[in-house]
Specification:
The complex is a heterodimer of chains A (309) and B (165). With 309 residues, chain A is an alpha/beta fold. Chain A has ten helices and six strands, in the order H-E-E-E-E-H-E-H-H-E-H-H-H-H-H-H. Chain A folds into two domains: 158 residues, no CATH class; 123 residues, no CATH class. Classes of the chains: A alpha/beta (309), B alpha/beta (165). At the A-B interface, helix 6, helix 8 and helix 10 of A face helix 2, helix 3, strand 4 and helix 4 of B.
Chain lengths: 309, 165
């Protein structure tokens, strides 16, 4: 980990010294253990604030759209896929950014670590340490990291560290299991989840691909969906939020981490990821030349759902 | 109007008083709406449960139209456009097909009954197909019963202005 941190710092120093970028967006230590926060380094001497370890969970690509200056961004696999989508959607210009790719072993879920030592509180936590108490890393990862199939950046200008081996696994086993439940059970589960929602829109704000100047939930002419925490309105908000990300979601998990009440947002996202893969054979953010599935069509798209009287 | 001198014929609807589904049908102007028109001018009988909304193209149907309909309490939604390859705007229904495929599976995934929202293609010459389609959709929705999921109920204690009129 220290080695990656050093490499990232060296790259950042060089980029700033050579005036290749105005700002390097990365992570620094937060004020609490298990916390890393986004950090904007503008001076060469500040590059030593940058760190890299298992708590660098935020999706930094969120900070790229509408940025006037030239920026370098520290990008995990999911970040780099978000960058690809943003470039395709013309929110970011390729020549305005430098991507510092970092192969990612998956980010650690703070809540799980805290729960495993509760009721004690954590004074210090590090990766690969020489501490009296250790936890298994793979068991404490975020859900989106456990099923991640793209740990390596897909688009980068400089790579820190060595690419990791690709994991081969079925990423949608949970969705298939959920689909075997009865419709009323699925409805009951998701209604319960959605009931928790307080409509703070943190999920939308954290999402790297939710950059619309006016979101459908804010529009009042027409008002697409009611603004209260009515069960039906909230369900429709969640359905449409996920739907608007169909074929664009890079499963970075930013929405789930941002949610203050723990709504199972990932269920809907992942269901659409699977559906887009199965129906249109597309996975978001893997190439700059692939057309977004909802912006194109094929003459022989599946249409088994069409009713024929 | 009933004149004192004339006689008044009243025929009750079959099974009146029994619940009947309300179905909203979004039909594209160029094919399906004309198909419905043909069914009408050809005097083909089909269930009176559909309320037709004419849209320029099936590609014009925003998924919100469908969700809002369900929220407002319709029991079923039918969307129909030109057959693939016959869109008046050349590719509107191809884009619509992708949108609908995802929306339909999303709704079914969250537990909205299969059949609440249905999609079809009807051309301007297919009056018979349109009548059969409405028959099939109505039967399916009738079998499902009144819609409950996604229906928005106003909070208790709130009386709508319309109720006072």
């Amino acid at each position: 980990m220290q080695q990656l941190t050093d490499e990232i710092r060296a790259i950042a120093r060089k980029l700033l010294r050579d005036k290749q970028v105005d700002v390097v967006i990365g992570f620094e230590r937060g004020s609490m253990p298990l916390r890393r926060r986004p950090c904007f380094v503008r001076k060469e001497e500040d590059a030593d604030r940058l760190v890299w370890d298992g708590w660098c969970e935020n999706t930094l690509a969120t900070y790229l759209p509408k940025r006037k200056e030239k920026a370098a961004i520290v990008a995990k696999g999911c970040d780099s896929r978000a960058v690809v989508e943003l470039i395709k959607e013309k929110q970011v210009q390729r020549d305005q950014i430098i991507v510092i790719g970092v192969p990612c072993r998956g980010m650690i879920d703070r809540a799980q670590v805290e729960a495993s030592v509760a009721p004690a509180r954590i004074a210090q936590a590090e990766e690969d340490p020489d501490f009296e108490e250790t936890l298994r890393r793979t068991g404490s990862l975020h859900d989106c990291c456990k099923t991640c199939a793209h740990p390596n950046p897909v688009l980068y200008d400089v790579l820190a560290g060595e690419p990791l081996p690709q994991k081969v696994q079925d990423p949608f086993a949970d969705i298939e299991a959920f689909n075997t439940m009865k419709p009323e059970e699925r409805w009951a589960y998701l209604s319960r989840e959605v009931e928790k929602c307080i409509r703070c829109y943190a999920c939308r704000n954290a999402c790297p691909l939710c950059y619309c100047p006016e979101c459908f939930v804010d529009a009042s002419l027409p008002q697409w969906v009611g603004k209260s925490v009515d069960a039906s309105d909230t369900m429709i908000f969640h359905l449409m939020r996920a739907y608007h990300l169909a074929g664009r979601c890079v499963s970075c998990g930013a929405c789930e981490r941002a949610c203050p009440v723990g709504v199972d947002i990932g269920k809907l996202n992942r269901m659409l990821l699977k559906e887009v893969r199965d129906l249109f054979g597309y996975e978001a953010g893997l190439g700059l030349d692939e057309k977004s599935p909802m912006a194109t069509f094929r003459l022989d798209d599946p249409e088994s759902f069409i009713v024929n009287p | 109007m009933v004149c004192d001198s004339g006689s008044l014929g009243v025929r009750r609807m079959a099974d009146s008083g029994k619940w009947e589904p309300k179905i909203v049908a979004f039909l594209c102007n160029w094919c399906s709406y004309a198909g419905a028109d043909l069914a009408g001018t050809s005097r083909i009988q089909y269930p009176p449960n559909v309320r037709i909304i004419r849209v320029p193209c099936s590609g014009r149907v925003n998924p919100f139209f469908i969700l809002s309909s369900l929220q407002k309490g319709v029991d079923g939604v039918l969307v129909s456009g030109c057959h693939p390859g016959e869109c008046h705007y050349l590719t509107g229904n191809y884009s619509a097909r992708r949108k609908f495929a995802l929306l339909k599976s999303l709704l079914e995934f969250v537990g909205v009954e299969e059949g609440r929202v249905q999609f079809s293609w009807v051309s301007a010459s297919e009056g018979v197909r349109f009548a059969k389609l409405v028959e099939k959709v109505t039967n399916k929705v009738r079998a499902l019963g009144p819609a409950k999921r996604l229906v928005k109920t106003p909070p208790q204690g709130v009386v709508h202005a319309a109720a006072h009129r």
